[in-house]
Automatic annotation (TrEMBL):
One of its GO terms (biological process) is regulation of cytosolic calcium ion concentration. Keywords: ANK repeat, Ion channel, Ion transport, Membrane, Transmembrane, Transmembrane helix, Transport. It comes from the Eukaryota. The keyword Membrane applies. This is ANK_REP_REGION domain-containing protein. Pfam families: Ank_2 (PF12796). The lineage of its organism: Eukaryota, Metazoa, Ecdysozoa, Nematoda, Chromadorea.
Length: 217
């Protein structure tokens, strides 16, 4: 399958897959057929293989594959990159991390810095659009609390990868505001009364400072 993909013989690749061949089979160098499709700019093979079972996280760790994915997308309006994101198990998380990866690569690959910077922006915009679509169907808090394969919440991933466009999205800002206020919607006199109580009675302040998942705390 690797040789067929490298040569761009889509029909042969389909025959292998339909015959139960493993699309995730690795060479001695740890390369899967998808890597050869991207490296040799065989868009049709790449489209087909992206719809087969593959390890998104492992592929994202292969900087050459990520770079080749960008090159393949130059003539197709970043279609391979878009397909890679949409076919992943967590599209928003994938788009965010890809955007950060391409931004870092643009600082090192001076010759292709502009192209890498452009796809970084493209991936970030996709993350914003996907978050908007998901937030219209589900509670934004559930999305932002969802954890990646390493156990990190999406909100932490956004902050860690400096995704300003995504963090500035209305649903994200609303959730951050709720965290900041503790979802406590009090009038001014209630806040004043609470402040007086904890000032007069220090143990109350100590109690509300404990990590008890209290909204007031």
């Amino acid at each position: 399958m690797h040789y067929s993909t490298k040569a761009g013989h889509l029909n042969v690749v389909k025959l292998f897959v339909n015959s139960s061949a493993d699309a995730q089979a690795e060479t001695k160098e740890g390369k899967v057929p998808l890597c050869f499709a991207a490296a040799h700019n065989h868009i049709d093979c790449l489209r087909f293989l992206l719809k087969q079972k593959h390890d998104t996280h492992q592929l994202m760790e292969d900087r050459k594959f990520i770079f080749d994915l960008m090159v393949c997308g130059k003539a197709t309006k970043d279609e391979p990159l878009q397909e890679f994101i949409l076919q992943s198990p967590a599209p928003i998380d994938t788009a965010v991390k890809l955007s950060s990866l391409y931004r870092d690569m643009s600082e090192k690959e001076k010759e292709r810095a502009k192209d890498l910077s452009n796809v970084a922006v493209f991936a970030e915009k996709m993350a914003v659009e996907l978050l908007g679509i998901a937030a219209s169907e589900y509670n934004a808090a559930l999305l932002l609390k969802a954890k990646d394969h390493r156990g990190r919440p999406l909100l932490d991933v956004l902050i860690e990868n400096e995704q300003k466009e995504v963090v500035s999205y209305a649903s994200v800002q609303r959730y951050l505001t709720e965290i900041w206020t503790g979802r406590v919607d009090w009038s001014s006199w209630k806040f004043l009364f609470f402040a007086i109580v904890v000032f007069i009675c220090p143990p109350a302040w100590f109690y509300f400072s404990l990590p008890l998942d209290s909204r007031i705390g």
